[in-house]
Specification:
Blueprint: E1 4-6, E2 14-18, H1 23-35, E3 39-43, H2 49-60, E4 70-73, E5 77-80, H3 84-92
Parallel strand pairs: 2-3
Antiparallel strand pairs: 1-3, 2-4, 4-5
């Protein structure tokens, strides 16, 4: 699987589901980078078909619509879309 780990301050498990061509996904990555938060992400559109189905199944548990970006904190909090304040709040938890 093509999960990319981005180094930074550990705030628990932070997982980002993205598309390589999505502007909001790029903004979310940049925002997390600017905050210095460590996270992992996967560009779903760049995966092979069997990997893609597996990751989409995982993502649907959090976001049945499979819209992007989808950001999951510690397997508890899910943020769909780019929402700076919600991301900052989730990081504090």
């Amino acid at each position: 699987m093509s999960v990319v780990n981005v180094p930074g301050e550990k705030k628990g498990e932070v997982r980002l589901y993205t598309l390589s061509t999505c502007g909001w996904c790029h903004k979310t990555k940049q925002f997390l980078d600017d905050l210095g938060i460590g996270y992992s992400y996967v560009d779903i559109d760049l995966l092979k078909e069997h990997e893609r189905e597996s990751i989409l199944k995982e993502m649907r548990q959090w976001n049945p619509r499979c819209s992007f970006p989808t950001l999951v904190f510690n397997n508890k909090t899910c943020i769909v879309g780019f929402h700076e304040e919600e991301i900052k709040e989730a990081i504090k938890k």
